[in-house]
Amino acid sequence: MATYKALTEENCKDFKNFKYSEFKCKCKGKYCKGYPVPFSYQLASHLQKIRDNFKKPVIITSPLRCKQHNKNSGGTSNSPHMKGWAVDFYINGVSYDKLYSYVKKLPYYSYAYRVKKNQNVIHYSITPPSEIQVVSTVKRDEFKNQLKVLADELRVRTGASTNASIVGVAKKNCIYNYFETKKDSKYTWYRIADKQWVANNGKYLTVYSKTEGEDEKVIAELQKQVQELTDKNVLLEKTNQELQTQIKEKETNEYKSIYKCAEDGDYNIKIKMYKDEELYIK
Ligand SMILES: [Zn+2]
Ligand SMILES: [Zn+2]
Questions:
Q1: Of 131, 194, 225, 278, which one is least surrounded by beta carbons within 10 A?
Q2: Per CATH, is 146-208 categorized as 1.10.3810.10?
Q3: Which ligand is closest in space to the CA of residue 124?
C-alpha cells in the first residue's frame, strides 16, 4: 500500500507537465509563504495521469490554500484544500462530466463537484491512504451486529462500491461491528466505521446479525422481573455491591440466574449492571 507522501520541489520533477509553483496557495504571499502544508504527492501524480489521459494542459485554479485564503475563497472550515488533498482545475475543451468520470476512478478518490454552474472547473479531492486507519477490531458480542473476515486480506473502502477508494485491509479472523448494509448486483456491503466499508460475496465474511427481538425479549423479561423485585422492595435503595452480595448469599437455593450482562452500561431497564454481573431472580 502506498503511503502519504509530501510533494516537494525536488520530487515534483517526477511530473513533467507540472511546476512546483502551480501547487502554491494563491493568496500571493499575503497570508502565507505559499506552502502552509505540503501538497499531496499522490494528488500531484493523479494530475499528471489526468494530463496524460486527456493530452491537454491541466489548468489549476485552486491548489493549496492557507486558512485565511480558504476563508476568503468561501471554502468550508475543514476544506481539503488546506491539507493539500484537493485541487480545482479545468482542461480546455473537456467537459466537467468527462473529468468527473475519470477522477472518480482514481485511487483514494474522496469527492468531486462542479465548482461553478455552467463551467467545467472541477473540485477534486482525495484521502491519502495513510491518513485513515482501518477501525480496530472488537470482541465477539452477540448483542451487536458483527462480522468476521474469512478472506486473507479484505479491502476496506470509503464507500459501498468497488469504485470507492481503498483505506486499507481487514485481516483474516478479525471481528468488526457493522452499522449499515447496502446491496449492489455483486456484493452486500457492510459499514464497519465512518467511510469504511467491506464487501461480501458470500465467501469473504461470516455475518453475525444480532437477532432482532432476541435481546428485546430478554430485556422485556428482565423488565418484568425487575418490576416484580421492585414491588417486593428487593431492589430499593440497594447499591450494586449490596445487591450483588445479597444475591450471592441467597443464590444457592433461592435465586436463579436469568441474565448475564455483556457490557458495562445503562440498559434502560431501571437497573445498572456491570460487565459479567448476573441478575438473579427468586
Ligand atoms: Zn496563502
Ligand atoms: Zn476545491
A1: 194
A2: no
A3: 2
